[in-house]
TrEMBL record:
<dbReference type="InterPro" id="IPR018062">
    <property type="entry name" value="HTH_AraC-typ_CS"/>
</dbReference>
<dbReference type="InterPro" id="IPR020449">
    <property type="entry name" value="Tscrpt_reg_AraC-type_HTH"/>
</dbReference>
<keyword id="KW-0805">Transcription regulation</keyword>
<protein>
    <submittedName>
        <fullName>AraC family transcriptional regulator</fullName>
    </submittedName>
</protein>
<dbReference type="GO" id="GO:0003700">
    <property type="term" value="F:DNA-binding transcription factor activity"/>
</dbReference>
<dbReference type="InterPro" id="IPR009057">
    <property type="entry name" value="Homeodomain-like_sf"/>
</dbReference>
<dbReference type="GO" id="GO:0043565">
    <property type="term" value="F:sequence-specific DNA binding"/>
</dbReference>
<dbReference type="InterPro" id="IPR050204">
    <property type="entry name" value="AraC_XylS_family_regulators"/>
</dbReference>
<dbReference type="Pfam" id="PF14525">
    <property type="entry name" value="AraC_binding_2"/>
</dbReference>
<feature type="domain" description="HTH araC/xylS-type">
    <location>
        <begin position="217"/>
        <end position="319"/>
    </location>
</feature>
<dbReference type="Pfam" id="PF12833">
    <property type="entry name" value="HTH_18"/>
</dbReference>
<keyword id="KW-0238">DNA-binding</keyword>
<dbReference type="InterPro" id="IPR018060">
    <property type="entry name" value="HTH_AraC"/>
</dbReference>
<dbReference type="InterPro" id="IPR035418">
    <property type="entry name" value="AraC-bd_2"/>
</dbReference>
<keyword id="KW-0804">Transcription</keyword>
Length: 323
């Protein structure tokens, strides 16, 4: 096992096989992934290569990342009547066998299995990049009505609800070990909400999820998009990219205690600050940097920069040049 590992309300483990002695790789995989998330056993079908994060939340196990070819199976001693498993294949193919059925899960597909019977999952040559979740059936059942109706039914990952679920789960994983107890419980609630939407929830569960889990997931996705573009998006750009109205997006930010325009301004200022500190931009004047960061008015840029960082763009550049 490599990297960080914590135990608590959100036990989180990073598994990177290149940092694990070859003789220990399979056993560590069995212990951390095969017990923390799925209650399964694993047999390698190729030299073991894994890069994944495994996380245990209340009533929920998560594993995301990539792995080489494996045979993942659940024997009788590992049967768990309160276990409901979702595998989303983002890249690669796995063949899942359960309740007398066999289904390939390929690129852009997801599938559900129950933990109450012996099952088999064979990751095909070339390996798999995946999102894997193990839900407490006791907690999930009231949200989706009849769990048996969705077992071994291929689900597309491109739909908006499944996409929100997978993106939100990845954001939780990206948080590493930074989740507090409160954040862990909130994340669990939101993931169950989004799972109910993606799988097919009851009317009440869907209404609750739309007002709770969907709002949080959409806001996170929009913020991540704005951050990725350094604030270099207009409100209309954001609305088109996320297929939402500008009014709805503004309300999402207001519910989070910040206006959309303030958030976008903050990202533009951070982009300008990074460029001012970057030796590769030392030959560019401050006006050009401000313009590239999305400011058309140099006076407005200077005022906003000083309010945000407590200093001037020139002082930031001078300090960076002396470092």
């Amino acid at each position: 096992m490599a990297g960080d590992a914590t135990v608590g309300p959100s036990a989180s483990f990073r598994l990177v096989t290149d940092a694990i002695p070859a003789r220990d790789r399979v056993e560590i995989m069995r212990e951390v992934y095969g017990r923390t998330v799925l209650k399964v056993d694993l047999d390698p079908l190729a030299p073991t290569q894994v890069d994944m994060r495994v996380r245990a939340l209340p009533g929920l196990g998560i594993a995301t990342g990539s792995c080489s070819e494996f045979r993942v199976h659940r024997s009788t001693p590992l049967i768990d009547n309160d276990d409901f498993v979702l595998l989303a294949a983002l890249d690669g193919v796995s063949v899942m066998k359960h309740r007398g059925r066999e289904e390939p899960v390929g690129n852009g597909q997801a599938l559900m299995m129950s933990g109450d019977e012996v099952g088999l999952n064979v990751i095909q040559p070339g390996g798999l990049r995946f999102v894997n979740m193990s839900f407490s059936l006791k907690q999930l059942s009231p949200l989706i009505g009849d769990p048996a109706a969705v077992l071994m039914q291929p689900l597309a990952t491109g739909g908006w609800a499944m996409r929100l679920l997978l993106d939100y789960v990845q954001a939780v994983q990206d948080a590493g070990d930074g989740l507090t107890r409160e954040a862990s419980h909130l994340a669990t609630t939101h993931i169950f909400d989004l799972a109910a939407l993606a799988i097919g929830g009851t009317r009440d569960a869907v209404e609750i999820a739309r007002g709770r889990g969907v709002r949080v997931a959409r806001l996170r996705a929009i913020k991540a998009d704005i951050v990725a573009h350094g604030g270099d998006l207009s409100v209309d750009d954001v609305a088109k990219r996320h297929r939402l109205s500008a009014r709805y997006i503004r309300k999402l930010f207001e519910s989070d205690g910040m206006s959309l325009s303030d958030f976008m301004l903050g990202q533009r200022l951070l982009r300008a600050h990074r460029m001012l500190c970057d030796p590769r931009c030392c030959g560019r004047n401050i006006t050009a940097i401000a313009f590239e960061a999305g400011f058309n008015d140099l006076s407005h840029f200077n005022r906003a920069f000083r309010r945000r960082f407590g200093t001037t763009p020139s002082d930031v550049r001078d300090t960076a040049s002396r470092a």
